[in-house]
Amino acid sequence: MNIGIDKIGCYTPHLFVDMKQLAVARDVDPGKFITGIGQEKMALAPITQDTVTLAANAALEILDEDDKEKIDLVIVGTESGIDQSKSAATYVHRLIGLKPQARTFEIKQACYGATAGIQMAKGHVALHPDRKALVIGSDIARYGLNTSGEVTQGAGAVAMLISQNPRLLAFEEHNAYATDDIMDFWRPTYSENAFVDGKFSNEQYISFFNKVWEQYKEKTQLGLADYEAICFHMPYTKMGLKALRTILDEGAEADRERLLANYEISKTYNKNIGNIYTASLYLSLLSLLENKTDLQAGARIGMYSYGSGAIGEFFSCVLQPNYRNYLYQAHHAEMFAARKEVSVTKYEEIFQEKLPTDGAAVSLNIDEDPAAIVVAGIKDHKRQYVNKTK
């Protein structure tokens, strides 16, 4: 049975900060942000967007009524959860209008959550071939103003419909994975912003990649020549390139040129949104599919997922016939084109806006947010969500 991604869509808020402007404001050479880190724009979530709304907005545009009837598993991977008990998936389930006969839950393992969700969804579909699973990665990366990680912040979500006989990509049989208890990146419950040991985290990202790549080659006997492209989790777009370069000597010149060229295409959306944690790998995949117009059916795409703390996994998928007919490229192009740049001063103002943490009631102006699904406020310790399309 072929199981894979039948549909994929993304959502990012309507506001962004230009990295050149942020560099000037921080008295940094713009080349450090744009070339050194590889980021051009940073998506900014207004107070009316959170993990739930980002996830719901990403799913809303790709699902039709037939999908909604067949979805009976909803998984949201995030490390930006809004509740210590109730899952984001439960809110999403209602906001996008799914039937009650469904399992819903949230997964947390740093940037690996969506990949874990996909592995669970594969098993579910294998047992229930007539059903579908919705897996969403949704996050808001926050390191704080004037911090070393500020340039890698971002906000967004990627939603994927997992089914048998997928129209986009079929997962291949093997996976390679590794876990180790390390402290390269973490966010204690008392902190709104993450902590990161940047140099150590970069080293571990590459180390885990090399481990799982070697495992995968041993399991499958595949090498660089067998891949049209390899997509990476992108905490910033230069990171994946550093890992890719460690294995390029294994291939011929044509392999190196192909993989490097396709890596550049795969980072198109990421460099204009920023880090969205568990959705970043799948944003890279989406960028490749929508911007590399001559990919052929049967092409193999490698996938490297990394979640700090830490787990790494490598797997691959194969493009299906006529896959381009089932992409939402025009919708995504409209979304990017409609975004509004804000000044650094305005960005700092929005960044510091917070919902009450003491349970106080508040109403928000949702008219300024063009998204279909928004946070309208807090009442009785409950976030108030609104789907404007209903």
Summarize it.
By secondary structure, the chain is α+β, with helices and mostly antiparallel strands. The protein is 34% helix and 26% strand.
Task: Walk me through what this model shows.
- This protein is α+β, with helices and mostly antiparallel strands and 390 residues long.
- The protein has two domains: 225 residues, 3-Layer(aba) Sandwich (Peroxisomal Thiolase, Chain A, domain 1); 156 residues, Thiolase/Chalcone synthase (Peroxisomal Thiolase, Chain A, domain 1), CATH 3.40.47.10.
- The protein contains 13 helices and 17 strands.
- The strands form four sheets. It has a nine-stranded mixed sheet, sandwiched between helices.
- The radius of gyration is 20 Å and the shape is globular.
- The two termini are 37 Å apart.
- The relative contact order is 0.19.
- The model has no long low-confidence stretch (mean pLDDT 97).
The low-confidence parts are: none
Integer-rounded radius of gyration: 20 Å
The average pLDDT score comes to 97
CATH architecture of the largest domain: 3-Layer(aba) Sandwich
**Strands, count:** 17
Principal-axis shape equals globular
Instruction: Give the ordered list of helices and strands.
Output: EEHHEHHEHEHEEEEEHEHHHHEEHEHEEE
The CATH class name of the largest domain reads Alpha Beta
Main sheet: which strands, in order across? 5-4-6-7-1-8-13-12-11
Secondary structure category: alpha+beta
Largest sheet, described in full? 9 strands, mixed
Strand content: 25-35%
Question: Which key features would you list for this structure?
Answer:
single chain, nine-stranded mixed beta sheet, 2 domains, 390 residues, three-stranded mixed beta sheet, Peroxisomal Thiolase, Chain A, domain 1, globular
